[in-house]
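Homework help board

Subject: predicted structure for assignment chain

Our instructor gave us this sequence and asked us to write out the predicted structure in token form, then describe one feature. I got the tokens but I'm not sure how to describe them. Can anyone check?
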Amino acid sequence: MPREDYSPVTGGQSFYNNLSCLKLSNISDRKEYVYTLTTCPYGIDTQPKHGFIRHQESGTVFGQVVFDHILTSAQCKYYALRPDTYYFSLVGKTFIRIGEKNKNVLQRLSIESYDSNTGLFQVTKLFLEGKQLLSWLNWHDMAEILESMEWIPSLHKHNKLSNL
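My token output:
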């Protein structure tokens, strides 16, 4: 007896039951927020139940979970989830330090790219003395920088090609 989710012509999964086809075709108009599981595999009580859409494989050890709303930072810490959708939205933005004006202190941080498999940001650091440094920051360090009140977003986006 043939399975209902397989196409009678090709024998493959039908369009409507293949989640990757649904995602690529934009059939659903709901916003999805992706979080990476960092310390334990997907299972019961490893992520909040409210708003959960699906688990998906990724280049990470435990995969990713998708929600229909933004989780609080307390939920992310409790379930050890990394908010990849939010971190991807930071790419192309520049942050400026307010307050201390020491020439050896980092004054501007431009986010060049984000790798969701490793949780690393490629950033350009600019010091007051004019020294520029291309570097990597892990997502924990980036969260600390953004949660501190010393940094504010710049009004203009940086040119990603300026450092090539």
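Reply (TA_rk): Your tokens look well-formed. For the description, you could write something like this. DSSP finds four helices and nine strands in the chain. That's the kind of observation they're looking for.
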